[in-house]
Amino acid sequence: MCFPEKGCKKTGTRRRAVQENTAGQLYTIEGIAAGLIMIMTAYLVVNATSVYTAGDTHISDMQLEQLGSDALNIMDTPETMNAQSELRMIINTSPPDGGAFNTIFLNLINGKAGTGNDHIQYTANYTCRTDPGDSIESHLISYSRPMTGGEHAVRVTKWVTVKPSFPFCGTTNTNRTVLAEVLIWRD
Amino acid sequence: MARLNDDAQWIILMGFLISFSFFFLAIIINQSTVVGQTTAESVIEFPKNDIRDLRGIIEQSANMPYPDNATVNKDITVLSMNRKNAIVKYSVFPPNLPSNPHTTASIHYNNGVTTFYENWTSL
After folding, report:
1. ipTM confidence score
2. Residue A88: what are its φ and ψ, rounded to 5°?
């Protein structure tokens, strides 16, 4: 029988009786809502296993690499034609002129618009091939502070031609090419 | 007699809808922290500065006399392999007057992901 108190209505004309039963609507809505809440919870639980932070995007790494690469490029550009670049002069002395490298490089990468300086540290060395043969050797140029190993550093490199008048990686007074490598990190 | 009261169904449904949309917006804002990851990583991974640097050093070595140019060639090849994980092979050809007054170089570079080949001619 169709009782209004059970949510059943009689619609239709006098000739044709149609019964519209709306008794279960609230139950249906409640069921759909419960299902959606369960799906949401499952998603939150699974997503919580990997937390993404801003460092995971590597945007700051990319910016730091570009900064260091530009600084090394500036240092390896001679000021006038037939002059030597600063980086070449630094590596062309025995031992390498670490003080000059420190001053120039820190000035280049720590400059900020406005007052104050940035806090970027570095360790620089150069690698050369021991002539004759295929072995390589690395020598320190300078560093701003000792590396503890916990820094998140990026590496930038620059090829430098030198012609040292002292014994250098197996030759003397010969044109050589070394790779200047600098590890940069932000304190 | 008692009736089943189904008056507030519409407003309850709207309430659920609004809360689900809040949740969705919270997810969108939370995921926005990783925007730019693949862009930055592809910029880091592409060796643009390496290749430009290599071209510069090879052009510098084009005027070196023998045997310095052979020493520098070996320097670049060995150091690239050991420190830059890249295979570099290049040859510089001096001018062949009078028919060819230009210095030419052919440069091959391959770091396992990107290869670069250039036939460079001087002015």
Report:
1. 0.82
2. -65, -40
